[in-house]
Amino acid sequence: MLTCGRFSIPLGERSLIMGVLNLTPDSFSDGGRFSDPRRAVARALQMQEEGADLIDVGGESTRPGARPVLVREELRRILPVVERLSGRLRIPISVDTSKSAVAREALRAGAALVNDITALRDPEMGPLVADKKVPVILMHTRGTPRTMKRLARYRHLIPEITAELRRSVRQALACGIRKNKILIDPGIGFAKTPRHNLVLLNHIDTFKKLGFPVVVGPSRKSFIGHVLGDPGADRLFGTAAAVALAAFQGAAILRVHDVAAMRQVIAVAGAIRGSR
Known about the structure:
The longest helix has 18 residues. The chain contains ten helices and ten strands. An eight-stranded parallel β-sheet has the order 8-7-6-5-4-3-10-9. It has a two-stranded antiparallel sheet with strand order 1-2. It starts with a strand and ends with a helix. With 276 residues, the chain is an alpha/beta fold. The protein is globular. It has a single domain, classed as TIM Barrel.
């Protein structure tokens, strides 16, 4: 069971769905669509009705090459949405940020989980998460969105990522974050080549052996266009294939844009897995 504030959601019965709500003008897939708080709130409520188990709200694009956003701008984007949703959603709100100042205000406004792509690189993030007793997702990456492509070099991909995730977990525990509040994410698309992403999706079981719920976010990412030989291709069906594979291997949470479609994919993949 994962406790997020007043919410408790079961882990392990099936892969949970984290609906993506990007409030940025430059996100790789839906930049600008939900920059209006009213549209963002409507989209979150729609994803809830489509079957999302959590909503992940982000105010800074982390696509390759993205420029950093100031704290005040990130807060301007997300706080009105989190405040409006906190009393209306029946599911937890996650805040997708690497800044402790943003996380603090979002948690105060009603968020109940922190999704940190930098795995506590901000020295104040770990103590904040520990103090607030909220879950945290520790994602694997290297560098920043502007430098991570240059850092996608590994001699032994899975062992290196596993070791770096272990290091992040040790840091989290040293900050006082309880083990049952930690989730890990191998970071598909972050300091990874298209081939690296395919290998990661074949090793969800390996990451599960670290002893923490695994979050996987393949939705609409560029490696799908690479596989299809068409960078501009619609990535819905490619996403479905990646989600099905991750769900079949027992990923705890799938972070997706297309909630209704992926809920069906996860249901069937989970049923096949359960029949073994």
